[in-house]
């Protein structure tokens, strides 16, 4: 059976389903004729206007820390759980470490407990390839080479989430997969103080502001288009070979920050250029590059979207949704 057949008629819970990855995943699951797609999201870093609308999508406004809300969504007896809810990301965790620990630590523990009670077919956790590998990890990052010398609470709690999923797999036999994302971008991510560089660059460029670059711009990132991430997640939900594994989901390519800035400015016809600002204390990785060999082998994963084409799609989404984005952006 293929991916479409596996999810047809199934019940799927997506925590954090209103965000960029979650909203795109839920839209795809609805198109695959899942019986019910349940979104649990407290809208702490997402917006209701960004949630896909379909008759088989149910939105529940609530937190993964709220037992009453968890009982409500698990009454649907989900077959699959995609745990995307998180306190995002590095700077936010430095500013608010206690909240980070509660959401990313206690939050996943609670969701795992309920998932184990209803015997889900698969529990897929959104970890961070940008987080669990350190300066002592070799490039390109391969799955066994994680670090315990980390630089932000977010990195610590993302690794903690993997330890909890592994614990539930080892002790209870819960079928888990740890998805290590690399620099995800795409339609659906609203800019803001704690958001990623690509939506923020588009927002500033469309407002004709200079794009701030920390460092000299030669730093690289492994930007991965959201549709490719969705393909990887859906495969993780059904491939038996993936159970119990941690798997990178990246593009397997490096792109320089300065090239990104120049491309965004060109797309937005922004003549303000760039400005160089001081690097943040935790921002110590000058290069990020994933090895996706394991994903190719176990999942049949093959990224389809070239970086420039993905940026074109983000710009089109910004233009189409500018009124909502401009109203919602929080800096």
Number of E-state strands: 13
| Low-confidence region ranges | none
The SSE string, one letter per element, is: HEHEEHEHHEHHEEHEEEHEEHEHHH
Number of alpha- plus pi-helical segments: 13
- Decide which structural class fits the backbone: alpha/beta
Distance between the termini: 46 Å
Radius of gyration: 19 Å
Widest beta sheet: strand line-up = 3-2-1-4-5-6-11
The share of residues in extended strands comes to 15-25%
What does this protein look like?
The chain has 331 residues and is of the alpha/beta class. The protein folds into 2 domains: 3-184 and 223-249, NAD(P)-binding Rossmann-like Domain (Rossmann fold); 190-222 and 253-282 and 306-328, Alpha-Beta Complex (UDP-galactose 4-epimerase, domain 1), CATH 3.90.25. The protein contains 13 helices and 13 strands. It has helices at residues 3-7, 20-31, 67-74, 90-95, 97-117, 129-132, 153-172, 197-206, 226-238, 257-267, 293-299, 307-320, 322-328, and strands at residues 11-15, 36-41, 57-61, 80-83, 122-128, 176-181, 184-185, 211-214, 220-221, 224-225, 246-249, 255-256, 274-277. The strands form 4 sheets. The chain has a 7-stranded parallel sheet with strand order 3-2-1-4-5-6-11, sandwiched between helices. α3 (67-74) packs parallel to α5 (97-117). The chain is globular. The protein starts with a helix and ends with a helix. The mean pLDDT is 97.
